[in-house]
Inverse folding.
């Protein structure tokens, strides 16, 4: 672990180049605006952006909530790369830091984008909830599950819907209906869960098309930028295998009939 | 004017609000849920270590029972809790946790056979039974007789919130995100919804509803950056309830300081770290909790551990750093595999925010504001005092199962248990109510909100709202913290009152059209200053030490005078808070020793029967509205006596 502890570069003057546009001021063109700040120990972009807003420009829009990399509010482009601003230490960046809003999502203003609407749409599209096999019985003990399986489900469950994978996806940038890595990961998570009663044909309906697993061009920008380091490549391969299996199945049956 | 109607308006999209919304949608009501952020970004997602429910599934949980959970919760509260509510909670928590399993939460499960744990500094091999294989696993948390916290790594809140929000989407519940309730619409003792401001456009509107539920979480951000809380935990729900002048806030001085906030960012490091065997060390590398609390060690309740930590620092055994003195959390012996699986989120936080590897390095920690035991005072069915049709649930409410100290893992549990339970009562209320609101009332509250905004935009000269916020935060952090004393609390009240007076003269520097982030915060600052004042004033008046409220000048818990709950209303006539006090509730478990945290207490003078007899009338006189079930219907009188032997061994020995 040769990571910087946040102290070594204290004393630098940082130069922030920040994208500015307020849709409620349509006459003012989108532009980059520059701010300078003295770097402090353990400074994150959360600390820096709040300081800029409170000391330099109170109209600056951005989103933070938890500031501990679990709520997914603060995805933005940092020097062109989608990431969570709250966990980005300035000590890991050069003096000039360029900040822009995530592409794909509707701009609310400056660095703030509407990920909420996009993700609710995605969850509706992939029907991202457990399709129960039977109604909940309050008097019964829980169904058992092997801990290994539970941990495997948790691995995919960790997605925080920050939108970085969507912003970093070549397909999602040009195709509005593509569910992206976050959507495919969500599908894989439920597909692996025995509590979900959907059968293969229902899953096929959800993902085996251009909006789903066959829309992906395999650039894997999603995995490179995922701040939670989700195994998106594995999840994608898992879905593709399942989908291709489903595609082949009828053909094989037909072949057997002929034989 | 943008005026819309719904059956049930839920303000707040965290676990409590969403679970409550689900209950109402299942009852066939039209539900509208408003949230400052997309619901999955609510602060519930940041809860880490676990949710308490007495399933008794693993070896160290054997023999657990809701009555033991009830006992731990009441002792943890330092007898400040409403024991009937603690009983409802403990009984319903196992159902709530299993319902979450049904909705897909990937709970950690029991692995049968030999498992290695760290218990009180010892490496222990335990054999979990084959018959329990695959049931929901528990980990140890502070202040509990059994291992009881159900968990999903250190991302329990995240897993719960996604499962519950999945149900919200499945049911097609109307969710409006990036919207804030800026005032309640009310008339003649009846609440009819809320005035809202859109955080995309800045546009005002109003939602009229048969029932209105506040589920906006805690008010930790009045402590500024000295909190684990998200930036959105600014007590907006408590503020708009207080503004009515009708609704009291309960026990606002009961503020929890979590022992292990990461230094310097203040990010939470879960109690599950100590539950899974982590140690606290001082600057000499000494495990001071063994000396301070030989029995419970690192797993005494949070108020007790935080006090011992502050004592170490005060006595010069803290570790100096540019961000102030701190102590160490040592997880090295627990090992990299455990850290990267069962405590994965902690491993990531240490790496990302401090550049350290907790498998090899010590974690710098210090007590920091974490949880608001106080909130909108409601009866056991969630109905707010003083305003029919207004309910509150979760951390925003003072229901009141936590009293003066909440046990770790009891807040996640409260969100879903109370969401279900109070949700049912909201549905029953709304199902029978008609929407008889006068639109003129809504229009007048809307016009008030418009005038407030225009007032802010008109002033051009004055102090910055951020400076006012910082000043209040410094006062609270230094004078209304882990340890308190009368002189400092008196100063704190004066300082906060002075800051509140400055709000009226403060000016914005931005006139940006749209949501305008500065205006957005300006609309909250007055409410935050009032909450801060009430917190400090409640602490000043309460001349005893109970749970997280620790007075150096009054070190004893005083059950003869202070076995009560503080209620604070806002008086618009005086521009100041007015306080009163009510009994905590029916007493089943008599006040006694907690079994940890060596402090003396003064015995209550009133016989318990007389105390209990006076509860109902006293609550009514404070504005409590009638409940559908009679007072005490959920008590299981004396049931705790069968479990007394499970109390901590040193119980009663002090």
């Amino acid at each position: 672990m040769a990571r910087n502890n946040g102290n070594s570069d204290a004393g630098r003057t940082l130069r922030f180049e920040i994208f500015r546009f307020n849709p409620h001021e349509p006459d003012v063109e989108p532009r980059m605006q520059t701010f300078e700040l003295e770097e402090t120990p353990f400074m994150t972009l959360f600390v820096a952006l709040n300081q800029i807003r409170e000391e330099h420009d109170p109209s600056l829009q951005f989103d933070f909530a938890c500031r501990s990399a679990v709520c997914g509010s603060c995805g933005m482009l940092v020097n062109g790369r989608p990431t969570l601003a709250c966990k980005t230490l300035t000590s890991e960046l050069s003096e000039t830091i360029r900040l822009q809003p995530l592409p794909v999502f509707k701009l609310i203003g400056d660095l703030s984008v509407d990920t909420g609407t996009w993700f609710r749409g995605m969850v509706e599209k992939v029907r991202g909830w457990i399709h129960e096999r039977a109604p909940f019985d309050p008097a019964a003990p829980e169904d058992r599950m092997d801990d290994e399986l539970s941990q495997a489900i948790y691995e995919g469950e960790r997605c925080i819907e920050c939108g970085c994978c969507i912003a970093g996806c070549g397909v999602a940038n040009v195709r509005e209906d593509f569910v992206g890595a976050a959507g495919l990961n969500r599908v894989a998570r439920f597909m692996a869960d025995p509590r979900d009663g959907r059968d293969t044909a229902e899953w096929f309906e959800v993902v085996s098309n251009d909006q789903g697993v066959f829309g992906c061009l395999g650039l894997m920008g999603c995995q490179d930028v995922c701040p939670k380091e989700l195994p998106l490549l594995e999840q994608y391969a898992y879905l593709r295998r399942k989908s291709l299996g489903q595609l082949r199945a009828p053909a094989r049956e037909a072949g057997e009939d002929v034989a | 004017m943008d005026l819309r109607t719904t059956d049930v308006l839920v303000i707040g999209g965290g676990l409590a609000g969403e679970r409550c919304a689900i209950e109402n949608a299942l009852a066939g009501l039209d539900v509208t849920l408003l949230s400052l952020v997309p619901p999955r970004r609510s602060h519930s997602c940041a809860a880490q270590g676990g949710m308490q429910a007495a399933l008794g599934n693993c070896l160290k949980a054997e023999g657990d029972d809701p009555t033991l959970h009830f006992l731990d919760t009441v002792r943890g509260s330092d007898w400040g809790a409403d024991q009937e509510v603690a009983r409802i909670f403990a009984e319903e928590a196992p159902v709530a946790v299993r319902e979450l399993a049904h909705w897909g939460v990937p709970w950690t499960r029991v692995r049968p056979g030999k498992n290695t744990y760290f218990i009180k500094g010892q490496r222990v091999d335990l054999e979990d039974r084959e018959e329990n294989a695959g049931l929901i696993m528990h980990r140890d948390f502070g202040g509990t007789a059994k291992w009881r916290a159900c968990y999903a790594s250190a991302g329990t809140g995240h897993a719960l919130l996604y499962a519950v929000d999945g149900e919200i989407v499945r049911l097609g519940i109307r969710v409006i995100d990036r919207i804030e309730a800026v005032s309640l619409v009310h008339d003649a003792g009846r609440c009819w919804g809320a005035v809202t401001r859109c955080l995309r456009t800045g546009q005002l509107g109003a939602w009229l509803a048969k029932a209105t539920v506040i589920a906006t979480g805690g008010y930790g951000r009045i402590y500024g950056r000295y909190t684990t809380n998200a930036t959105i935990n600014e007590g907006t729900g408590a503020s708009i309830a207080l503004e009515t002048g009708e609704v009291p806030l309960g026990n606002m001085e009961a503020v929890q300081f979590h022992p292990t906030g990461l230094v310097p960012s203040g990010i939470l490091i879960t109690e599950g770290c100590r539950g899974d065997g982590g140690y606290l060390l001082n600057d000499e590398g000494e495990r001071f909790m063994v000396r301070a609390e030989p029995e419970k060690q690192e797993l005494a309740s949070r108020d007790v551990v935080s006090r011992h930590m502050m004592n170490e620092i005060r006595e010069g055994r803290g570790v100096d750093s540019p961000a102030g003195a701190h102590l160490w959390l040592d997880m090295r012996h627990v090992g990299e595999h455990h850290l990267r699986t069962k405590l994965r989120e902690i491993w990531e936080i240490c790496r990302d925010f401090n550049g350290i590897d907790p498998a090899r390095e010590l974690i710098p920690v210090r007590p920091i504001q974490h949880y608001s035991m106080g909130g909108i005072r409601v009866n056991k069915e969630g109905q707010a005092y003083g305003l029919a049709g207004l309910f509150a649930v979760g951390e925003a409410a003072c229901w009141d199962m936590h009293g003066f100290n909440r046990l770790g893992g009891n807040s996640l549990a409260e969100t879903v248990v109370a969401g279900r339970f109070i949700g049912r009562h909201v549905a029953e209320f709304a199902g029978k109510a008609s929407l008889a609101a006068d639109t003129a009332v809504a229009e007048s509250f809307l016009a008030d909100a418009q005038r407030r905004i225009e007032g802010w935009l008109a002033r051009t000269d004055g102090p910055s709202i951020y400076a006012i916020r910082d000043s209040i935060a410094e006062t609270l952090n230094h004078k209304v913290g882990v340890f308190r004393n009368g002189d400092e609390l008196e100063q704190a009240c004066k300082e906060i009152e002075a800051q509140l007076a400055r709000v009226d003269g403060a000016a914005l520097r931005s006139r940006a059209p749209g949501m305008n982030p500065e205006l957005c915060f300006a609309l909250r600052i007055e409410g935050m200053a009032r909450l801060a004042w009430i917190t400090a004033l409640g602490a000043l008046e309460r001349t005893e030490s109970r749970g997280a409220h620790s007075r150096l000048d009054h070190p004893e818990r005083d059950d003869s005078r202070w076995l009560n709950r503080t209620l604070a209303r806002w008086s618009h006539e005086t521009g100041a808070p007015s306080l009163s006090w009510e009994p905590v509730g029916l007493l089943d478990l008599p006040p006694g020793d907690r079994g940890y945290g060596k402090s003396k207490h003064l015995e209550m003078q009133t016989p318990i029967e007389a105390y209990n007899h006076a509860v109902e009338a006293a609550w009514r006189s404070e504005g409590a509205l009638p409940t559908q079930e009679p007072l005490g219907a959920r008590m299981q009188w004396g049931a705790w006596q069968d479990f007394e032997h499970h109390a901590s061994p040193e119980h009663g020995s002090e």
